[in-house]
UniProtKB/TrEMBL annotation, chains A, B:
This is Transcriptional regulator, TetR family. It comes from Lentzea fradiae. One of its GO terms (molecular function) is transcription cis-regulatory region binding. The keyword Membrane does not apply. Signal peptide: none annotated. Keywords: DNA-binding, Repressor, Transcription, Transcription regulation. The keyword Cell wall biogenesis/degradation does not apply.
Length: 190, 190
């Protein structure tokens, strides 16, 4: 969990990166908007690049912890898929700015950071894939479409959400999550 | 259709934008990589911004024309959805670099360009939506999930494709398109 100061810096950086772009935002502007000293910022983050990565790391860490919690419940495959979709849709909808900034600036991460990012995403993806594969092996899900394609479809709509989701839109994140889960589960029905 | 010179400029710009970023690429570098004169570049494109937009406009224009052709065939709704998914997956997979560069730099487009882009995407989206709605109204598709969510899922996986598709991967674009279409159609089955 980030400290209150760390969170203030992250929130200010997200707002500035989202509204005026990463390049156009200086550390000085972030410090001013967050109402902290430059010393405080450099205490938590070595660089602007570090801050960008942290913005996303917090999101994916929360999603991964949520995934582990869901798996540990040991529910039937369909319920597990529904809970995973709810967790992904709701957490992404709540942090639309963070996610869009991160994906836009992803190519700026250095090799080490990119490797960390890919490893964490891969772990998430493979855990989800294993749920679908087990459901197919147990006959709870249809095997008509390979599990990897099912997961790409299910995760794709979530990763695209920042481009179309509006917090003031007609459907709440919870309702959207249920509709998306319904559709994915309908596709898996035997 | 772009002229041969225009295409050379676009190809060079896409390669440079994809490998080193839009900001870090100068018009001079594009001219050099495309082996054309600066005068030729400015004959076709007013600015780097103009070139960025054109990269994407060519893709979406081709996709829209393909959509009109598919609709004109007057096929049953399921066949129409399959053809649309094939068109989207195959055309996006063939232009992975163009699509990722464009989405990454989208926020740089001026208001007028952004409005054009949104209008063209909306037209595509609404045409696809009408196909699903008609299939639901005619009872050919299940109405369990609202058509707008179905289209967001179907289009989401295509828009995310540039982040995971590898031209040297195990599945061809045509095979991927069929698997994705199978899954979307399974979700719509009555």
């Amino acid at each position: 969990m980030p400290t209150a100061t760390e969170q203030k810096i992250i929130d200010a950086a997200v707002r500035l990166f989202a509204s005026q772009g990463y390049d156009a935002t200086s550390v000085q502007e972030i410090v001013k908007a967050a109402e902290v000293t430059k010393g405080a910022l450099y205490h938590y983050f070595r660089s602007k690049d570090d801050l960008l990565f942290e913005i996303y790391r917090l999101l994916i860490t929360a999603q991964s912890a949520d995934l582990d919690r869901i798996i540990a419940l040991g529910l039937p495959a369909a319920d597990t898929v529904r809970e995973i979709m709810r967790s992904l849709v709701v957490s992404t909808a709540e942090r639309v700015d963070e996610t869009s900034v991160f994906f836009r600036e992803l190519h700026r991460l250095g090799q080490e950071r990119m490797a960390d990012f890919r490893a964490e995403r891969r772990r998430y993806h493979e855990t989800f894939l294993a749920v679908v594969e087990k459901g197919q092996a147990d006959g709870e899900f249809s095997s008509a479409v390979p599990a990897d394609t099912v997961v790409l479809v299910a995760v794709g709509v979530v990763n695209q959400l920042p481009t179309w989701f509006r917090p003031d839109g007609q459907k709440s994140p919870a309702r959207l999550a249920d509709e998306i889960a319904d559709f994915v589960l309908a596709g898996l029905r035997t």
